[in-house]
Amino acid sequence: MAAGQVELYPQNPPRNQQPAGGGVYTTIRIERAADVAGAPGAFAEIGTVPIDTGEEWTYYLDQNGDSTAWYQYRYSNLANNIQSAYANYIQAGDSVVRQSVRSEIPDLDITVAMWDRWGREVMIDLFVEGIWKPDEGQIVITSTANVPDESYALPSHLRDLIAIETRDSSGRHSATLEVGPSRDEGDYQLGPTNRRVRIFDPSTSTSTTYWAIGKAQYRNLGELTDDFFTLAMHMLLVKYAMFRQHQRLNWKKFITFDPTTDILPRDLAGFIQQEKIEVATRVSRLALPEPPLPLPY
């Protein structure tokens, strides 16, 4: 993430929370405030984004934010001049998942940086366990001396390639390319690490674009909703409990939410085991089936 950029994942309005006067919300209005001694200052609108009806949240990138800024948002329909109340404000990098866990474990010695690190580890663990999202990225065809190049790097956010397809000038799917060891047996070939692709005889026409479809890792706890939210919360609890177990001091009886009572190591180990069982149960229900991945030649 570049300096000054902040990724936001405002949740879309539930279907049963549409405007009372009729119509539907179509836009999310984003506001930002500077941090003043740990609290937000005055909010000012920084942008609007159409609601992504294909997701439970709508992605927004603040190009001029910082890690201490605060954000809030509300839904609107500019054409009908209707607006909702504001959602609860949240600080950059925070998420409802982390807030929920921290509300249960208010230990003052657990810093925001530690929660951030555990959150990043959870994102990796989710992908390893089969919790991933399908994503795509364009492969821009280039040429050297008016001859189209053949070798291209895959978009960095794609962890595994599922397919390569072409689209027409309107963005509609045209064809799915076939993988093969040579131009006589396929349209493209993968490198041995699955990070580079060789497209045989690519078109340089501006009316044709090439798109890589693959598996991507969730980038932020703020992207997770519903079942994934609960799974991530249990995974964060495991990270926290294992930290306490490794620390071997200052045991907290967080199972009963009493921050002053010591807890025995065997009780803590039992809690970790229970949480791991909960994680494994949810993963078995939510993990996506593996798509047929192309193999390098």
Description:
With 297 residues, this protein is α+β, with helices and mostly antiparallel strands. The chain folds into three domains: 6-93, Sandwich (Immunoglobulin-like); 97-130 and 219-286, no CATH class; 135-210, no CATH class. It contains four helices and 18 strands. Strands 2, 5, 7, 8 and 9 form a five-stranded antiparallel beta sheet that branches. Strands 10-18-14-15 form a four-stranded antiparallel beta sheet, with no helix packed on it. Helix 1 (96-104) crosses helix 3 (226-247) and helix 3 (226-247) runs antiparallel to helix 4 (265-286).
The tally of structural domains comes to 3
Note the gap between the termini: 33 Å
Strand content: 25-35%
User: Taking Cα atoms only, what radius of gyration do you get, to the nearest Å?
Assistant: 23 Å
* Helix content class: 10-25%
Number of strands: 18
Structural class: alpha+beta
What's the short story on this structure?
This protein is 24% helix and 27% strand. The chain is an alpha+beta fold. It has three domains: 6-93, Immunoglobulin-like, CATH 2.60.40; 97-130 and 219-286, no CATH class; 135-210, no CATH class.
